[in-house]
Specification:
The complex is a heterodimer of chains A (385) and B (593).
Chain A: H1 17-25, H2 29-39, H3 51-60, E1 67-72, H4 81-88, H5 90-104, E2 108-113, H6 121-137, E3 143-148, H7 158-165, E4 189-193, H8 194-206, H9 208-212, E5 222-229, E6 235-240, H10 245-252, E7 257-262, E8 268-271, E9 290-295, H11 300-314, H12 320-338, H13 345-359, H14 363-367, H15 369-384
Parallel strand pairs in A: 1-2, 1-4, 2-3, 5-9
Antiparallel strand pairs in A: 5-6, 7-8, 7-9
Helix pairs in contact in A: 1-5, 2-3, 2-5, 5-6, 5-8, 11-12, 11-15, 12-13, 12-15, 13-15
Chain B: E1 5-10, E2 13-18, H1 23-29, E3 55-56, E4 75-77, H2 81-96, H3 112-120, E5 143-145, H4 155-163, E6 170-172, E7 179-181, H5 198-202, E8 208-210, H6 214-222, E9 227-232, H7 252-262, E10 266-269, H8 270-293, E11 303-304, H9 309-318, H10 332-347, E12 355-361, H11 365-371, E13 385-388, H12 389-398, H13 420-423, H14 430-444, E14 464-470, E15 485-492, H15 494-506, E16 513-517, H16 535-550, H17 561-571, H18 577-583
Parallel strand pairs in B: 1-4, 9-10, 9-12, 11-16, 12-13, 15-16
Antiparallel strand pairs in B: 1-2, 3-4, 5-8, 6-7, 14-15
Helix pairs in contact in B: 2-3, 8-10, 8-14
The chains are: A alpha/beta (385), B alpha/beta (593).
């Protein structure tokens, strides 16, 4: 492997998680949180909120009940790393949740499992039963339960996820209040991605330094990537953050890579001419793990059309910019392609996408225009002709 | 509890507001109007239409001002370049999925989306038409639902769930298919809908409107063979003025004059049968109490009022096991119908087959009630057409009548005389107050022990009210009531009704008599009343009702001379044989789905 791409093995590394927990339970909440803050760990679901801060906010809330939620509603097209983590290292996920419970003062945890991952239920439940017994031996009061999603993409949004958990329609809430103040059932809740929880556990094991020394200033540590598309090496890879897209494509491309969609359907499309200066990370283009490579056989119009069809259907529909905006973007490129609207109509649509980014209620509507803008900007001619 | 003050800047002006205030409310304090669509004063925050977005310095996105609480040092711009562009685009987006047939639309002129698009002069229609075809749901005799005009603000859903605990309307599907629908997409008439029409009062467009019968009524008026009488509900007379921009006002005389000019043959009053209801229902209550206390019979107590058809259907769906508690009295509207086509027809020497009874109601559920198969006591459909206050307003406009300039006129006689006790039927607590004024006097021979007959404990906008009256020194025939403390409760709005019913059912609360009105504030806040509605407007209407009561010479139902006359010459006695046939009804248990 090229030395610019650095493989890391933290997530899937076999560790004595009970020993880590036992040690952590003897520490104070603040000590645990401080380590996570020092490590520079940011949420691995895509949005990248500093995990230690989130835990600190939840910890500082006074409440009779707090919750920990593991967001396993892995719905972003092109992402499949959480499934693998839950298959190969479920104990580490549970231990990460217990650690978060200790740090924030929560004694109940939930895994919100993507509906399509229900095949994992038997093995996960068995692991949970075993884990509960182990926690009892450590004399730590913490339980984990699984709630299954039903297939709506928007339920990966943290507040929609909580609405869904409460038995309601999965629609994002207004923020503030944020979940750390009023989350599941109105109680302070720290909700973290599967991968984030495992990293937190590893930071508790190793201390913050090792993690912080990897990656870049804005993007510390490593990240699990789901590589798919036109690549001979599709699969899951844990890599140090901060690499350039060029290095990434040199490693994973098929020699004919025309564009890479970073961050799934809600992410950005980068064209070959920008590979060199594009950093994969929070200072450049962040990703929840999805890396889709496209070679020159692909039509960017079809790709964009697919993404927009996805959003048109997966918007929850409650807010105007997202519900109608997604329809307009899709119908708009179709109209331009057919010549019903002039090519300049794409400029109107880009103004619309600005409104969607600014005025949508949640991250879905705010990021749905990302593929639109990046593909229009890079491949305008493919959309028109 | 004193609240913390939060200091912020809106459009560079300083303002200090209570903690928890939203940006929208803070801007209103500075007299900056921010447009809204999904926001409604009566409902919880939604934040989903996004037309109220504002720019907050330092925030990457534009927060919805209706849903964002202020914070210390916040700097807000309500009309920046960014905000204007976003707002205009959002209005355009709404229009691109809206069936904007404004010239034909029943709501034209008071549609909030129309007003907003006029304000922003969105003439360009840059976006593609994404409307979907749909059939209008006219299955219900009360409510018409047209999804093609829906802007998905969910006001109706919040109304149906929060205010009414009915949940007939809900959000279904997602993305482009997201819509407001019913259980399994069933027609409105086949679901738990109570026809209360509160959703109509809050719909910003014409997605939910009443089934309107204006043309049918005009057809009847123009038909020389038909003798068309109209009855008017207590609550319409203080709200019809709103249809002419005059605010909530006592306008009984003008309304009567307008009806006469519209061409109705006789202008009569539901208030007459409201007084009659008190006689029947009061006697029913006293009879039930006697059966329970003296005869030791199993009688359904507490007795519950039955004037509100929204409440009746709610009870049939949600508490079908408590139907015996409902008074068997028909509502005043449905007492009027059969009396008009029997007693009155005879008096004026008309064939009831040629008569058309129209009622003007603050209510949409009354349309459904009039259609019930059991409402044919006269041998004909007792009430032929029910108009809302809004429809009457529309008819007066169409007929070119200048409402404001009309001189007061009086109801025709007979069936036009009423008392203050009947007028207050329009307010929550009013039926209770009217009943107490009469029942107390029947039992003790004295007036109710409240200053100027105003029974204050049963008045006001509190969701559930309780009161008790100690009965002392009774007449000899009512000796079993000596020393009894009559306990009553009043609820308005179906969520409050549900709370109260659950308390009664669980035995947590014990009453003798309960008044329930399906709509917030009672009939003055009815689903057929002028739009908009909010607490302030409802309070003004309620005040006008009490004012009307105070201005009437007769304020006790049993003193209505026409009521005395009808018992003498026709009905003979409350709960008598004829009353049973014409004025009482039964109820049907229904499923929730």
């Amino acid at each position: 492997m090229d030395n610019k791409i650095k493989k890391v093995d933290l997530i899937f590394e076999k560790v004595d998680y009970l020993e880590i927990l036992d040690r952590s339970f003897k520490r104070t909440q603040d000590e645990i949180i401080l380590d996570v803050i020092d490590s520079g760990l940011r949420g691995r679901g895509g949005a990248g909120f500093p995990t230690g801060l989130k835990w600190k906010f939840a910890k500082n809330e006074e409440a009779d009940q707090k919750y920990v939620i593991c967001n396993a509603d892995e719905g972003e097209p092109g992402t499949f790393k959480d499934r693998e983590i839950l298959t190969q290292a479920p104990e580490k996920v549970l231990a990460g949740m217990a650690l978060c419970g200790k740090a924030t003062g929560a004694n109940e945890g939930f895994i919100y499992l993507r509906g399509e991952y229900n095949f994992l239920l038997p093995s996960l439940n068995a692991t949970i039963d075993k884990f509960h017994k182990q926690l009892k031996e450590l004399k730590f009061d913490f339980t984990v339960r699984i709630k299954s999603g039903s297939g709506a993409y928007v339920c990966g949004e943290e507040t929609a996820l909580m609405e869904s958990m409460e038995g309601k329609r999965g629609e994002p809430r207004n923020k503030p209040p944020f979940p750390t103040t009023a989350g599941y059932l109105g109680k302070p809740t720290s909700i973290n991605n599967v991968e984030t929880l495992v990293f937190a556990l590893m930071i508790a094991k190793e201390g913050p330094t090792k993690f912080r020394e990897m990656g870049t200033f804005d993007s510390r540590g490593s990240k699990v990537f789901s590589v798919s598309g036109d690549t001979p090496k599709a699969g899951i890879y844990e890599l140090e953050l901060g690499m350039s897209l060029e290095d990434f494509v040199n490693e994973f491309g098929d020699g004919d890579t025309k564009a890479v969609q970073i961050g799934g359907a809600s992410g950005f499309c980068v064209a070959r001419k920008h590979f060199k200066e594009t950093v994969i990370g929070f200072e450049g283009i962040p990703t929840g793990g999805s890396m889709m490579l496209f070679n020159s056989s692909r039509s960017m119009y079809n790709i964009l059309n697919d993404y927009l069809e996805f959003f048109e259907e997966e918007s929850c529909g409650q807010c105007t910019p997202c519900r109608v905006g997604c329809q307009q973007l899709l119908k708009g490129i179709e109209a331009v392609k057919k010549g019903v609207r002039p090519p300049a109509y794409l400029d109107d649509l880009q103004k619309l996408s600005e409104t969607m980014k600014l005025a949508s209620k949640c991250g879905l509507g705010q990021s749905a225009p990302n593929p639109f803008n990046s593909i229009i900007n890079n491949f305008r001619e493919e959309i028109i002709y | 509890m004193s609240k913390y003050k939060v200091n912020l800047k809106i459009n560079n002006l300083n303002v200090s507001v209570d903690e928890g205030t939203t940006i929208l409310e803070a801007a209103r304090q500075l007299n900056f109007k921010i447009p809204t669509l999904c926001h409604h004063d009566d409902l919880c925050v939604a934040g989903n239409c996004r037309v109220c977005v504002v720019e907050q310095v330092g925030n990457r996105v534009l927060p919805a001002s209706c849903a964002t609480p202020v914070s210390e040092g916040m700097e807000v711009l309500t009309n920046s370049m960014k905000v204007r562009q976003a707002r205009k685009n959002i209005i355009e987006l709404l229009l691109s999925e809206h069936n904007a047939d404004c010239t034909k639309c029943f709501k034209s002129g008071y549609c909030e989306l129309q007003e907003l698009s006029n304000e922003y002069r969105t003439g360009d229609h840059i976006y593609l038409d994404v409307r979907t075809n749909n059939t209008i749901d006219i299955s219900s005799p009360s409510i018409e639902k047209d999804d093609s005009k829906c802007i998905r603000c969910q006001r109706c859903v919040r109304t149906c769930t929060e205010l009414q605990s009915v949940s007939a309307l809900a959000v279904t599907h997602k993305g482009k298919d997201m819509k407001i629908s019913t259980f399994l997409d069933k027609p409105m008439n086949d679901v738990v809908c109570t026809n209360c029409g509160q959703c109509i009062n809050r719909c910003p467009t014409a997605s939910l409107v009443e089934r309107n019968y204006i043309d049918q009524v005009f057809d009847a008026i123009y038909d020389p063979k038909k003798f068309v009488v109209v009855q008017t509900a207590p609550a319409t007379r203080v709200a019809i003025s709103e249809e002419f921009g005059l605010g909530p006002n006592r306008s009984t005389g003008k309304m009567v004059a307008a009806l006469r000019r519209l061409g109705f043959d006789k202008i009569l009053d539901t208030d007459f049968t409201a007084d009659l209801t008190i006689m029947e229902e009061g006697t029913e209550l006293l009879t039930r109490l006697k059966e329970a206390l003296v005869d030791g019979k199993e009688v359904a107590l507490p007795m519950m009022t039955s004037c509100s058809p929204g409440w009746i259907k709610f009870q049939e769906h949600i508490f079908p096991d408590m139907l015996d508690n409902l008074s068997t009295c028909k509502s005043p509207q449905q007492m009027f119908g059969p009396l008009a086509k029997t007693y009155y027809a005879e008096k004026i020497n008309k064939n009831p087959a040629d008569m058309v009874v129209v009622s003007v109601m603050p209510c949409t559920a009354k349309k459904y009630e009039a259609d019930r198969p059991e409402m044919r006591g006269s041998g004909y459909k007792d009430v032929d057409f029910v108009l809302t206050t809004r429809e009457l307003g529309r008819m007066i406009h169409q007929a070119g009548i200048d409402f404001e300039k009309l001189d007061d006129e009086k109801y025709d006689s007979i069936l036009g005389e009423s008392t203050g006790a009947a007028v207050i039927f329009g307010n929550t607590g009013g039926v209770m107050e009217a009943a107490l004024r009469t029942a107390y006097e029947i039992v003790t021979g004295r007036e109710v022990p409240f200053a100027n007959l105003n029974i204050k404990p049963v008045r006001g906008m509190e969701g559930i009210k309780e009161a008790s009256v100690k009965i002392k020194d009774v007449k000899s025939e009512w000796s079993f009531l000596e020393g009894v403390e009559l306990k009553v409760a009043i609820a308005h709005g179906l969520s409050n009704a549900k709370l109260l019913m659950n308390k009664v059912k669980s035995g947590e609360a014990n009453y003798h008599f309960i008044e329930v009105m399906g709509c917030p504030g009672g009939c003055i806040g009815g689903g057929g009343q002028p739009i908009p509605t909010n607490m302030e407007i409802r309070k003004k209407r309620a005040a006008a009702i009490y004012e009307e009561d105070e201005h009437l010479a007769l304020r006790k139902s049993h003193e209505n001379p026409e009521v005395t006359e009808i018992y003498k010459s026709f009905l003979h006695e409350p709960l008598g044989h004829r009353s049973h046939d014409l004025l009482h009804t039964h109820y049907t248990p229904r499923k929730r789905y």
